[in-house]
Each structure stands twice: as C-alpha cells, then as structure tokens.
Amino acid sequence: MLVLLCIAIALVGTAIAAKCRQVRRTAREPLVRALGVRELAKLDAHLDAVERDELGRMEHELSRYLAGRAGHVVVISKAPNGIALELSDGRRLALRGISVRTLELLHRAAPMHLLRPERFDRDAFSYRLLLRGLTGAEVEIYARNIALAV
C-alpha cells in the first residue's frame, strides 16, 4: 500500500513539474506574453481559416483563367522554391515544389510544342497541372503549390 502511495505521489509530482516547465516555456515567447494563450489560440484558428479561404480563392481564379484561352509558355525562369512560367498573354504561373526531372522535361517540350496550361487537379498534398501543346503533346507537372499572377 505504501508503494502505491509513493508511485502516485511521484506521478503527480512529475505532472506538476511538466506543467511548470510548459508554463515557463510559454512565458518566454513574446506573443504568448503579449496576447495570452487563449487569444493566441484564437488568432491561430483565425489565420488557418483565412489561409483556407485564400487557397480556395486562388484555386477558383486559376480555374476561371484556364477555362478561358490561356497563353502558351514563353519563358521558364527560376523562382524561390520552384519555377515561374511566363505566358504569352502576360500572365505568370508560379509553381513551387517541382522535381528536377519535370523541370528538364518542361525545358525540352515547351519550345517545341507551344505548351499552354489546360487544367489542374488538386490531390491531397499537391497539384497536377496539365500543359497541352498545339500538336497535342501533353506534359503533366506535379507541384506543391500553384499561383497565378498578372
């Protein structure tokens, strides 16, 4: 019985020590000190909602653009964490998180076939962008993010 009591006291002491460490750790963070834990959690939830809304807006804008007559790829340039496809109509598609193999394929196929973005699909963690040329050639690009810019 005495052994069980000692184990219970040790477990409670460990839990209290862990909670104290967590409180000290969060007290050192400037945002937690300024806003408090509850307010910071609310702000985090709000920013997550804003991110979802913005992602939906960007996907809708891209699908509207691709439903019209999108320009063909003129220039492929490096961009932070990916590439940018400059299109003949003055638009720009920024692709982040593509493979080197896909980039090489795109460099070979774009000048030959006048590739133009046709459609995109969203998988769980990435996008699949289909580029189709005037001759019917197709190139699929898998990217972590796609953004359309004017």
Q: What share of residues are in beta strands?
A: 25-35%
Query: What is the general shape?
Result: elongated
State the order of secondary-structure elements, H for helix, E for strand. Answer: HHHEEEHEEEE
Task: Give the N-to-C terminal Cα separation.
Answer: 75 Å
Overall pLDDT score? 82
Number of helices: 4
Count of individual beta strands = 7
Number of domains: 2
The side-by-side strand order for the widest beta sheet comes to 1-2-3-7
Q: Helix/strand/pairing class, anyone?
A: alpha+beta
The oligomeric state of the chains shown is single chain
Low-confidence parts? none
Largest sheet: 4 strands, antiparallel
Give the fraction of residues assigned to helices.
Answer: 40-55%
Radius of gyration based on Cα positions: 25 Å
Structural notes for this entry:
The radius of gyration is 25 Å and the shape is elongated. 52% of the residues lie in helices and 28% in strands. With 150 residues, the protein is α+β, with helices and mostly antiparallel strands. Strand 1 and strand 2 form a beta hairpin. The protein is built from four helices and seven strands; from the N terminus they run αααβββαββββ. The strands form two sheets. A four-stranded antiparallel beta sheet has the order 1-2-3-7. It folds into two domains: 55 residues; 79 residues, no CATH class.
Chart the SSEs and their pairings.
Elements lengths: L1 H27 L1 H6 L1 H31 L5 E7 L2 E6 L4 E5 L3 H14 L2 E7 L4 E6 L5 E6 L1 E5 L1
Antiparallel strand pairs: 1-2, 2-3, 3-7, 4-5, 5-6
Defining traits:
150 residues; alpha+beta; four-stranded antiparallel sheet; three-stranded antiparallel sheet; 7 strands; 28% strand
